[in-house]
Design goal:
With 274 residues, this protein is of the alpha/beta class. The protein folds into 2 domains: 30 residues; 238 residues, 3-Layer(aba) Sandwich (Rossmann fold). It has 8 helices and 8 strands; from the N terminus they run αβββαβααβαββαβαα. Strand 3, helix 2 and strand 4 form a beta-alpha-beta unit. The longest helix is centred in the N-terminal third of the chain and has 26 residues. The radius of gyration is 21 Å and the shape is globular.
Length: 274
Amino acid sequence: MNMKKNLKLVLFFFAFFVSVAQIHATTAKDPALKSKDVTYSIGNQNFKGYIAWKEDGKAVKPGILVVHEWWGLNDYVKMRADMLADLGYVAMAVDMFGDGKVYETAVDAQNAAGYIFSHPDLLKERITKAYDILTSQNNVDKQHIGAVGYCFGGTVSLNAAAIGLPLDVVASFHGGLTGFKASEQMKNTKVLICNGAADQFVTQADIANFKSEMDKYGITYEFKNYEGATHAFTNKYSTEAGKKFNMPIAYNEAADKASWQDMISFFEKYFPAK
């Protein structure tokens, strides 16, 4: 009896340790994937960026600015930078708020984002400085820079192109489109919009205006709508945040995966990793 009991215990712990090993194997970071924190300043304020790349023998790679949601420079945007690095880019998660600030409440986050949008010169100054930091890296191809943004960051990325930041591509995931104005300066930027069809923060009028603005300047773009997806559909935390702060946002696994693949296909056409 004791032998059977002991055997069961051995088998249980064996299965447990195998499971743990499998978890570590699937979540462990690729040893070729490298990252570093960078600190820089604008005037008297410090900013903290996060740069990720993959060591694969290539001397230089295209660079991508990765702009966070209104929550700030959190682990989510750093994870996206890692994912872009794994595709063959040098990706910099940008700090738009300063000091690597991460907000814990929707009210504080909304106020911080609103302040940036109400001060376009500040937006331009901060995204341009991040661009300068990224292009100063020895492993970045300075002639090929793009931007990827989420929610607040998607809007920032679009505006960065509109004000003349030389970007090959912009990919906006569930970014706001209200009042967007394109410009002659962004004619050479290819734009991908990944939008949740059920996003209550993006109206049909917003979409119509965006397309009209892009068409007016002959800008190449693709607009993807994901059925059933709400705002913030790529972030697994958004479902919890939506319930916590009573906001119409939720994670949508199908839309998350489809939009990432759409971005990869878009980049293969217009912004390939070299």
